[in-house]
Design a protein that fits this description.
Number of helices: 2
CATH class of one domain: Mainly Beta
Helix content: under 10%
Largest sheet: 4 strands, antiparallel
Strand order of the largest sheet: 1-2-7-6
Shape: elongated
CATH topology of one domain: Immunoglobulin-like
Number of strands: 7
């Protein structure tokens, strides 16, 4: 028999979970409730000519993810919802722990990166992005100015 717990995942989380103002980001809280700070975990790897990003998006389908390039920012968005018809086919909902909603994360990649340069692949709940490094302008050599007189 499934009995709902009056506590969260851990009894001590409820007792000692003081507000943390570092978690005030743009992630919509209703998707994963109070654990929304753990969504879209990203690993960034640097190579000689490109960067690789691995973004965790468990439970999402490829069609629910969008990637845009806006003014030098790569914006990754994911949204999922449950259809009303789907709820009626599955019966009366007693407890819902999987929420619907959306989340978004952005990364500055530079103004010289174009859409066709970014490669994306989605496998096993992980979005893999390959972004080329942009050429950095070389600083002019330091020159000494002679003072006359």
């Amino acid at each position: 028999m499934l009995v709902p717990s009056i506590f969260g995942e851990n009894l001590f989380d409820d007792w000692f979970d003081f507000p943390d103002f570092r978690d005030l980001d743009k992630t919509e809280r209703k998707l994963y409730g109070r654990h929304a700070a753990r969504v879209m975990k990203t690993d960034v790897h640097e190579h000689d000519d490109h960067y690789e990003l691995d973004i965790d998006l468990p439970g999402f389908k490829k069609e629910e993810i969008t990637i845009e390039l806006n003014n030098g920012y790569l914006v990754v968005s994911a949204a999922k919802g449950l259809d009303e018809e789907d709820k009626t086919k599955k019966g009366k909902l007693i407890r819902q722990e999987r929420y619907t909603g959306s989340m978004q994360r952005s990364f500055y990649v530079g103004d010289n990166v174009k859409e066709e340069d970014v490669k994306a692949k989605f496998e096993h709940g992980v979005l893999k992005l390959s972004i080329p490094k942009q050429e950095q302008e070389k600083l002019p050599e330091k020159k000494t100015i002679l003072i006359e007189g």
